[in-house]
Amino acid sequence: MGFLKKQFSTYLLNTILFEVVVFSWLWLHVTCLGSMSSIAVSYGDKGSAFCGLKSDGSHTVTCYGFNSAIVYGTPSHFPFIGLTSGDGFVCGLLMSSNQPYCWGSSSHIEMGVPQPMVKGAQYLEISAGDYHVCGLRKPLTGRYRNISFVDCWGYNMTNNYEFDGQIQSISAGSEFNCGLFSQNRTVFCWGDEVSSQVIRLIPQGMRFQKVSCGGYHVCGILEGVNSRTVCWGRSLDMEEEISLIPNQGQGGSVELAPNDPMLSVVGGKFHACGIKSYDHGVICWGLSLKTSTEVPKEIKVFEIAAGNYFTCGILAAKSLEPICWGVGFPTSLPLAVSPRTRKCFSEPCPPSYYEIEKDQQKGLICKDSNSHLCVPCSGVCPDEMYEKSGCNSKSDILCEYNCSVCSSPECFSNCSSSSSYSNGDNGKKSERFWSMQLIVVVSEIVFVVFIVSVVSITAVMYVRYKLRDCECSTTALNSATRLNVGSSVQKDNGKIRPDGEEFKIRRAQKFTYEELENATSGFKEESIVGKGSFSCVFKGVLKDGTVVAVKRAIMSPNMQKNSKEFHTELDLLSRLNHAHLLNLLGYCEEGGERLLVYEYMAHGSLHQHLHGKNKELKEQMDWIRRVTIAVQAARGIEYLHGYACPPVIHRDIKSSNILIDEEHNARVSDFGLSLLGPTDSSSPLAELPAGTLGYLDPEYYRLHYLTTKSDVYSFGVLLLEILSGRKAIDMQYEEGNIVQWSVPLIKSGDIASILDPCLKQPSDIEALKRIANVSCKCVRMRGKDRPSMDKVTTSLERALAMLMGSPCIDQPILPTEVVLGSNRMHKKTSQRSSNRSASETDVVEGEDQRFEFRAPSWITFPSVTSSQRRKSSESEGEVEVKIEGRNFVGGGDVLRSLEEEIGPASPQERLFLQHNF
Ligand SMILES: Nc1ncnc2c1ncn2[C@@H]1O[C@H](COP(=O)(O)OP(=O)(O)OP(=O)(O)O)[C@@H](O)[C@H]1O
């Protein structure tokens, strides 16, 4: 960008040159609503007025305008040092006594010399606000030289103010005043702060040349060659019922001063204007009334003064005549005003002064007609300009834009506009300029686009890099689920890879078949601890003495299915790590053998405890232990949904998949049916739903709409199982389906009748009531109406705390042992909060579904050979029905309520539902 600009600048330097004549006076007094100057403008109900010191050198004042009290009350014979004005009045600093003298129609300012007056007080400067005027006393000498006094008269201000330190100048705002300390050049303000806040907002550590107040703001010109302007305060009085618009080309806030170097600034009610130091042009900013006239273009002025909504200046080029803009200014001003800085010399102007040209001297008379009327030369040229010719007795310094270092819009526009005025081949130069400018603009756009692209690409790559583990995992699973058993190769995106080669097995150890055979004493019958749909589970002892459970895939004709589930579980368990998930220790894959090695769960499954023949075992499962297990299982599932990356939907939550370790902690097991998500939510479900009868989410079955809420449904059934001690489906009862039986009872408030009769009811069943309510919400027909697992966990934790008699049910009793083996990119946004109110203990209604998706196309459900299978658990001989298809028979009311909620079922679905419920 800089390179292009440089080329452009060089080009401009060679082709464009134009000149700007700059006038400047080294010292001009600042004016505000009424700071002292050779001109003053009054405003208010009685009309505006313009007063100026006559140009004949008499220092007497003449006023014009609509306020007759000012115009006719003008003390025309008193010479004044300077003038100031406010709402309906004008004051002048008398040359004879250095005291203020005021006239006009103000009810706050006395006509004549304002009283009370400190005897003998002489003033260096006076300045008027809306309804008051202040005078800066001449500096004291001797031991009081470091004390300054300011006397004020008028509304709310009549007082003598004492300040430590010498004050260089003062300026009055609407109802406040500011001063500038001579020594450190800092600004201080006093008076009413409420509407302006100018005291609080004073910029710290800045040194000012001048300061000037407006209605509710202050502007100061900073020290230094740049003479930058800084404004602060509130430009807008909220109580004003007037419509204000930003000044043309400038921001709406008066605090946003332009960067141009300034000679002086003045403040109106909501606006400010300044004289630019390099060309004496005027620039205004802030807010003005809609009907305001703009600053006349290309005027050059010696001095300016601001009223409330208008500003007046003394034209430098047109016989020193006044000119005003804004709203409500006095019109037809025939007055020529002498610049306060003019001097008459008998000799030609001395160094740093130059003579005002004769044609501009109309009306400006020196006492001696042979004298030379001189004014001070301007200071130095601003940054973007250079001094083309210096100050001499006949002319001011001449500054010219240095087009090679343009940075401001003014500089650019001046440089460009000058091209059309340069002599010779003007047209061509202009054309070249604009074509060059076009090139520059296009180049800049291309450059910006390039930078944005580079930054975006870098950001995307960085994010991808950070997410690489997550993606890898998906890929691995993707591959795993596509694996074809029976052939030693698999296809993935057209690439042929050796079977299982790319599995990312991190912690799982690879065992030989022989090792596991030895550990289980040759897989003998006595070692079997359980049987699943596709596997037998054996207890075994490894060489190092570790007791393990070895899950051996049943050798079936459907090898592809076995292998698929084997790899799904292998892959999932390898990447998951949580205190309440069953840990995978290793695996073996040799020939047709598929074996997974787990930690051994000494106390079997929750199903065995709840529904086993051993009554003692069931009774051992007291309420606290049951709810503890529920909380732990909930945490495990919550981890799968919220923390695992990618999130995992278990799909087969049931009591036989909740195992219990030596310390009676629950572990969620059996990931054979688990799916990873989320992925492309628009992908249709590839195959049929799977799960276990009684636990299966009806919405998932009906609509194939798989979400984490499907697990929530199953978990709800599990909770009902824990509370009632009944199986999910138990045909020995009239109401065989646990949901159908218990939910109406819970809803009617009859909790006691669903509680397990094997256990004594706790004295306070409130905790169990809460759990029952949670389970009801979990088994709602629509997934989106069910709570998320984190909400369920929180509710259960609180219920457990209650059950254990914890004084503070907001604090979970069990530590949350989330061991994050996978990254937390998918960590839920709604973290459980321990400081929720007790009223929130119930799960939130209408919870959003965080990982709602349709199963992606790459997921293949276990293929179905039989629509319904019976699985016998070796250890308990119980019967559990597992479904993977739709061919079912049976009946029930649930179907009706489901139909009411999610629409009528197809004949096939009706069969399933009738059978299932
Ligand atoms: N790590 C283990 N420690 C002790 N017993 C276990 C272990 N894993 C499984 N079991 C026992 O083996 C039984 C069968 O487990 P498995 O995970 O193979 O099948 P399932 O989940 O019960 O049935 P399905 O696979 O059809 O869903 C369990 O119910 C449990 O009793």
TrEMBL record:
<feature type="region of interest" description="Disordered">
    <location>
        <begin position="824"/>
        <end position="847"/>
    </location>
</feature>
<feature type="binding site">
    <location>
        <position position="551"/>
    </location>
    <ligand>
        <name>ATP</name>
    </ligand>
</feature>
<dbReference type="GO" id="GO:0099402">
    <property type="term" value="P:plant organ development"/>
</dbReference>
<keyword id="KW-0675">Receptor</keyword>
<dbReference type="GO" id="GO:0009791">
    <property type="term" value="P:post-embryonic development"/>
</dbReference>
<keyword id="KW-1133">Transmembrane helix</keyword>
<dbReference type="GO" id="GO:0004674">
    <property type="term" value="F:protein serine/threonine kinase activity"/>
</dbReference>
<dbReference type="InterPro" id="IPR017441">
    <property type="entry name" value="Protein_kinase_ATP_BS"/>
</dbReference>
<keyword id="KW-0547">Nucleotide-binding</keyword>
<keyword id="KW-0067">ATP-binding</keyword>
<feature type="repeat" description="TNFR-Cys">
    <location>
        <begin position="348"/>
        <end position="399"/>
    </location>
</feature>
<dbReference type="Pfam" id="PF07714">
    <property type="entry name" value="PK_Tyr_Ser-Thr"/>
</dbReference>
<dbReference type="GO" id="GO:0042803">
    <property type="term" value="F:protein homodimerization activity"/>
</dbReference>
<feature type="disulfide bond">
    <location>
        <begin position="381"/>
        <end position="399"/>
    </location>
</feature>
<feature type="transmembrane region" description="Helical">
    <location>
        <begin position="12"/>
        <end position="30"/>
    </location>
</feature>
<keyword id="KW-0812">Transmembrane</keyword>
<dbReference type="InterPro" id="IPR001245">
    <property type="entry name" value="Ser-Thr/Tyr_kinase_cat_dom"/>
</dbReference>
<dbReference type="GO" id="GO:0090698">
    <property type="term" value="P:post-embryonic plant morphogenesis"/>
</dbReference>
<dbReference type="InterPro" id="IPR011009">
    <property type="entry name" value="Kinase-like_dom_sf"/>
</dbReference>
<dbReference type="InterPro" id="IPR000719">
    <property type="entry name" value="Prot_kinase_dom"/>
</dbReference>
<dbReference type="GO" id="GO:0005524">
    <property type="term" value="F:ATP binding"/>
</dbReference>
<dbReference type="GO" id="GO:0090627">
    <property type="term" value="P:plant epidermal cell differentiation"/>
</dbReference>
<dbReference type="InterPro" id="IPR009091">
    <property type="entry name" value="RCC1/BLIP-II"/>
</dbReference>
<protein>
    <recommendedName>
        <fullName>non-specific serine/threonine protein kinase</fullName>
        <ecNumber>2.7.11.1</ecNumber>
    </recommendedName>
</protein>
<dbReference type="InterPro" id="IPR008271">
    <property type="entry name" value="Ser/Thr_kinase_AS"/>
</dbReference>
<feature type="transmembrane region" description="Helical">
    <location>
        <begin position="438"/>
        <end position="463"/>
    </location>
</feature>
<keyword id="KW-0808">Transferase</keyword>
<dbReference type="GO" id="GO:0048608">
    <property type="term" value="P:reproductive structure development"/>
</dbReference>
<feature type="domain" description="Protein kinase">
    <location>
        <begin position="523"/>
        <end position="800"/>
    </location>
</feature>
<keyword id="KW-0723">Serine/threonine-protein kinase</keyword>
<keyword id="KW-0325">Glycoprotein</keyword>
<keyword id="KW-0677">Repeat</keyword>
<keyword id="KW-0967">Endosome</keyword>
<dbReference type="InterPro" id="IPR001368">
    <property type="entry name" value="TNFR/NGFR_Cys_rich_reg"/>
</dbReference>
<keyword id="KW-0732">Signal</keyword>
<keyword id="KW-0472">Membrane</keyword>
<keyword id="KW-0217">Developmental protein</keyword>
<dbReference type="Pfam" id="PF13540">
    <property type="entry name" value="RCC1_2"/>
</dbReference>
<keyword id="KW-0418">Kinase</keyword>
<keyword id="KW-1003">Cell membrane</keyword>
<feature type="domain" description="TNFR-Cys">
    <location>
        <begin position="348"/>
        <end position="399"/>
    </location>
</feature>
<feature type="compositionally biased region" description="Polar residues">
    <location>
        <begin position="831"/>
        <end position="840"/>
    </location>
</feature>
